[in-house]
Structures are given as C-alpha cells and as structure tokens.
Design a protein that fits this description.
globular, 114 residues, 4-stranded antiparallel β-sheet, alpha+beta, 46% helix
Length: 114
C-alpha cells in the first residue's frame, strides 16, 4: 500500500506504507489513514526525522561477512548495500522544509489504517 504526503505549498510524494509508518513514528504521529503535520509542528518534525536518520546511520546493519567466495567490486558493493532510513527520509524532510518556508502544512493519506 502507498501513502501520499501532500504539501499545501510544495507538491506531493508517495512512499510505501511500511516506510511511511516508520517515518511518522519518528515524528511522533499516529499511523492512521489520514493525518496532518501543522505549520507549528514542522520544525520539530524536521528535527526528529534528521535525528532518526542520523541514529540509523550510526548503527550499520549486521552483515554475514560471507561474499560467496568471489571478489567484490565497487558495483557489487553498491548493489548489495541496503537503502537506509536517511535515504528514505530525505524526500519527506525536503518536502517538510519547503512547506515550512511557505508556512504551509502537510497532509498524509493512505487507503486504510496502516
């Protein structure tokens, strides 16, 4: 399922519900089918998302260390590296920042409770 974040001033982004839930929890929002991040809540939401991304980056994912007996190349490393929370949060952080500059708000909507 997809969740759509719509800014009152800056457009919209969509992401999978599992990631949206993780980001909304980092902000301190209930994961309901619809919600709002008000103008007053934007600065704290941006700060919390940045902190969550930084914390996630500080704890690297566990790896098995087994490369299957093959030499690794730069291309192999890039393909096998998981996408981190910081990379997933970046579009939402940008949307929140653009919205904050215009003193707007952000709505989110999912097909059902997620």
């Amino acid at each position: 399922m997809l969740v759509k974040f719509t800014s009152s001033t800056s457009g919209q982004i969509m992401m999978f519900a599992a990631i949206a839930r993780q980001l909304l929890q980092a902000i301190g929002k209930d994961c309901s089918a619809r919600g709002v991040i008000t103008t007053e809540q934007l600065p704290e939401a941006i700060t919390r998302l940045r902190q969550a991304a930084a914390e996630h980056k500080a704890t690297p994912p566990a790896s098995s260390g087994d490369d299957g007996g093959r030499a690794s190349t730069v291309g192999d490393e890039d393909e096998s590296r998981p996408v981190g929370l910081g990379q997933r949060a970046f579009p939402l952080i940008e949307l929140l920042q653009w919205t904050q500059q215009e003193e707007g708000f952000v709505l989110w909507e999912a097909a059902s409770d997620f």
